[in-house]
Amino acid sequence: MSTRTIKRGGKSARKVAAAQGKALKVRSARARTGSVFDSVMAWLPFSEGQLHRIFLAMILGVVAVGVWMVASFAGVPAIAREQVAVFAHDAGFELHNVNVRGTNNLNELKIYQIALGDRNRAMPFVDVHVLRERLLALSWVEDARVSRQLPDTLVIDIVERKPVAVLQKIDRLVLIDKDGIELEAVSEARAKGKLRLKGPGAGRQIAALSDLLDAAPALRPQLKGAEWVGNRRWNLTFKTGQILALPEGKETSAKALITFAQLDGRNRLLGGKAVAFDMRAPDRIYLRLPGRTDAIEQPKPAASDSAAKAATPVPSGKSALPKEQQ
Prior knowledge:
CATH topology of the largest domain: Rossmann fold
Structural class: alpha/beta
């Protein structure tokens, strides 16, 4: 007689079918999710490992910012800075020496005052960028470079501006560079031998004057001074004391200066009897002899007109001197 064992409480066919259907849905959902995730990962220019590291770095950054904010409220950064300064001082990393190079006209005392002005002289906290900006504010400094030389020295290299002329003001004489930047007030003795400019706004026209003189470079060494008249044109004074009145306009004045240089080369106008030359009229040059005319141009137009009438006109293509000097 055979024996059959019957288990009670087992899953019915309906329950088994339901479980299998649920497992199929889970596998299908996982497949779709993995497909979308794989598509996103394929689009990103990072591998999965790199992406994990990026997320980890972001989390650590947020935590670090939070810690720093809490520490700031508690005054920890200031305390840490003080401790670092103390350690730097004890180790000899404190600013004691300043090595300045490249200065000829600039008073080095001003540089030392700027470099050593900060009470906190711990070398790790010397801000070389801020120090450079302060040096560039000095009138003589065109450029500056600041570097640390551990343990206790700052090296400062200065590029000075070069004075090219003296600007004559109402109450003083001032050195200026090629850009018209005022460098410092000077005495009459220090101004001697330098090109002297005068007239309202003359300093701002120094570059234009240099371009004008390039048109006739032979005249540049003979020039003593220049006056910017009426904010429109130049009167040139030569070392002989003679004055040349040029017309207004960049091209017109350059053309007139070239013509004057050619006439001077042929007739030796500079050093001759004429005390002034007026080239404001087109294609003519007016010579003025001592005692016969007033100044080339006075502030009032009427005075200028009377002076022009009293002068002797000579065509620019002909000799401007009497026959005995030709």
